[in-house]
Amino acid sequence: MNKTRVPVPIARLVCLAAAALALTGTVTRADLFVTSSGLSPQPFDAVPPATNWSVLSIAGGAGDITTSVRMDEEINTNTLVAAVTINGQMTSDGTIPPAQNATPRWNSAVAGHWLQTRTTGNKYQVLMATSRNASGLSLSGIIISYDWDQKNAIPVNESTGLEGQRVYYSLTGAAGSWIPIPEFSTFTVNSTATNLSVTLNLGTWNNGDPLYIIWVDDNGPGSTTNPQEGGYTIDNFAISLPGLPPTFSTPLVGATNAEYSVITLSGSSSGTPPITYQWSKDGTPIPGATSSSLTITNITSSGFAWSRPEDSGDYTVVATGSVAPPATSTAAHVVITADTNAPKLLWAVVDTNTVRVLLSEPVINPLDDYGNDNANLYWTVDEVGGGGQSPDLIALVGNELRLTFVSGLTIQADKSYIVTFGGVSPLTDRAQTPNNSVLPLEVPLYAHQQITVPMTQLWKYSDKDVAPPADWSTAGFDDSDTSFWKTGPGVLDAKRQATLPWCRAVPVNTLTNSVGTCLILSNDLATGATPTYYFRTHFNFIAAAPSNTALRLFSKFDDAAVVYLNGVEIDRVGVPVGTWAHNVFVGGLRSVGDGDAPDRSILLPGSALHIGDNVLAVELRQVNATSSDITMALEVTTATTTPPILPPRIQAGYDGSQVSIGWDPPGGKLVFGPTPTGPWTTNATPSNPTLVTPSEQKQFYFIAQ
User: Fold this and answer.
1) What does the alpha-carbon distance between residue 215 and residue 166 come to, in Å, rounded to a whole number?
2) Is 25:14 a contact under the CB 8 Å cutoff?
3) Interval 483-524: pLDDT, tens
4) Contacts with 65 (C-beta within 8 Å, 6 or more apart), sequence order
5) Cα–Cα distance between 363 and 637 in angstroms, integer?
6) Are 61 and 120 in contact (CB under 8 A)?
7) Rounded to an integer, what distance in angstroms lies between the CA atom of residue 432 and that of residue 302?
8) How far apart are alpha carbons 178 and 459 in whole angstroms?
9) Residues of 551-568 as b/e, b for ≥16 C-beta within 10 angstroms?
10) Rounded mean pLDDT of 177-194?
11) Please, which pLDDT band fits residue 578 given cuts at 50, 70 and 90?
12) Are the CB atoms for 460 and 535 separated by under 8 Å?
């Protein structure tokens, strides 16, 4: 907003600019914070709160103080002139020129919007500003400026030396601590509009400490006719910092990491911008390293995207600002320990006609030694105790080898398989001192897979915007409370759209499954968006030992999720590390679009699996209150390296006049009884099949392995 100003002299007012989060005594203030960029001009478009601009009226009468010397004595002897007592809330006045009042006021007229003093009915009035050093630096001086004006006709009737306002400052706000600012206190009866500015030498203004400025306006001998008491205004109050050289407030922090890691050093400095940076290693400048942070990769032009032992050393950064001198950081000592481990095969899993093999570390491309036509000959998928199959194609993607069988890969349900590399040359890693594997390399193949939790799985869920008990994700938790836990099949979804209900047929372009359950985007009271949704489902697992099992998760989470298996976190997608309250949005770590690819198709250890009943739980999160949809789509496949343990199949048929009961696989005990619940009789050594003579009495049979 542009405002026309006709400035004039300063009479009697005390302003205290304080940067204080807390004053001495019991007064707490929301201060005017002076950052490294200063305090921008305050336009006073609204009445300011007493927390940063406050007022005080001192009892007495006109003409009680007639000289500037007497005023300076008064300000430092009157115990009421202290930050803790200058705490009145400013009121407003809409007249121009300013009307008389016992305390300073804010002018609400459209052409006004300033702070004003024109005292009456007292000895003098005080206006105080409270600010705090939030620059991150200890400051020796600041520049204070504002627009000043005298709005009554001139000349004004003021005592000599008390024309306009007298201004003081204090770093403590204590009574008797006020120091005059002469540049803001020298006027004549004819002074008019002007911009005032002074460089205030504070000695030491520590970061976090307050600064108080007061403007004092005495009740002079002016009358209601010209010449009268002056009406003085303050506008566009600002604090700026003198040019400051760059400084580092905290030392650089070194690190000791293993080879293949990535170390980043941060060396941000404060000072008058612009600031440029130059990093050095062991005293030698690093070409191109001119940011405030340094990622230690390719320092010696190695071409690698990770840290290597040769990158070990002492790192420093020089900050050069617009004000001399430059600043040099402390040294960060960096140690990169050498990789001495040869590459290994961590796991292998069947993905249709491709076998994906994860390597323990980056390797030199295994195609280099053999060429594309021959490399595949040295990789085989071998049946344990049987023959092998060689891939037709091989590719290295990151740390993953992909072996493709164009004509198909034969996997028999009752066989176990291993992936073997028996090349002429070993696998060689990309360490600074390369390590070679000992051949042959072998790893069990997760060859047997079955969908354990389908996309259409039946889930217990809560979209009530209420936190469940702490053990909600565990197998033993009781989720039978239907007032909290609803039930519905996947995919679970909601989409804000023009008409109700907020449902859609298919949640995202990358999923073919239809929506099974429509969620609610707002809480039960419809007072806001729901930040967190909770899901639980049971599944049974008997296929193999958990140590021989991995979990493959195929999922679409919108916006973000944490996945638990029997109370143990197994996956985290887009949720920052840590525990988050149910009513907190987790922030924009990622943006999810309807056409984005699924979040996960990964292999996870099955160590948290239980033989028998298991609980899969999902904590689904929104990143912000304006998210337009919510999607929980999850499919879990168990993959085992050994043939799955299948329950025995029992069948019955006639064999002449008798009933033949047989089962597969052989072995086990034949258990029978007169009802489905027993009592049971066990034949520990039955023949298979067992012949039973029919009778009028019913019998129920099962096989116990």
Assistant:
1) 6
2) no
3) 999 999 988 888 876 555 667 766 554 566 678 888 887 754
4) 12, 71, 74, 123, 124, 159, 162, 218
5) 29
6) no
7) 9
8) 70
9) bbbbbbbbbbbbbbbbbe
10) 93
11) confident
12) yes
Residue 60 — pLDDT band, cuts 50, 70, 90?
very high
**CA 66, CA 333: separation in Å to the nearest integer?**
67
* Omega cis (within 30) before 665: yes
The phi and psi torsions of 295 (rounded to 5 degrees) equal -95, 120
Please report which confidence band the pLDDT of residue 17 belongs to, taking 50, 70 and 90 as the band edges.
very low
- CA angle 175/177/179 to nearest 5° reads 135
Nearest to 557 by CA among 522, 510, 516, 525: 510
Q: How far apart are CA 586 and CA 105, in angstroms?
A: 44
Backbone angles phi, psi at 96, to 5 degrees: -130, 120
Residue 50 carries which side chain, given as an amino acid letter? A
The answer to whether the CB of 325 falls within 8 A of the CB of 245 is: yes
List the structure tokens of 147.
């627009």
CA angle 341, 343, 345 (to 5 degrees): 130
- DSSP string of 210-264, one letter each residue: EEEEEEEEE--S-BSSSSB---EEEEEEEEEPPP---B-SS----EEEETT---E
Q: Please name the amino acid found at residue 397.
A: V
Tens-digit pLDDT profile for residues 467-490: 999 999 998 899 999 999 999 998
Span 138-146, mean pLDDT? Answer: 92
pTM: 0.55
- Mapped onto helix, strand or coil, the DSSP state of residue 378 is helix
| 184 has pLDDT over 70 | yes
What are the backbone dihedrals phi and psi of residue 73, each rounded to the nearest 5 degrees, phi first? Answer: -65, -45
Q: How confident is the model at residue 669 (pLDDT cuts 50, 70, 90)?
A: confident
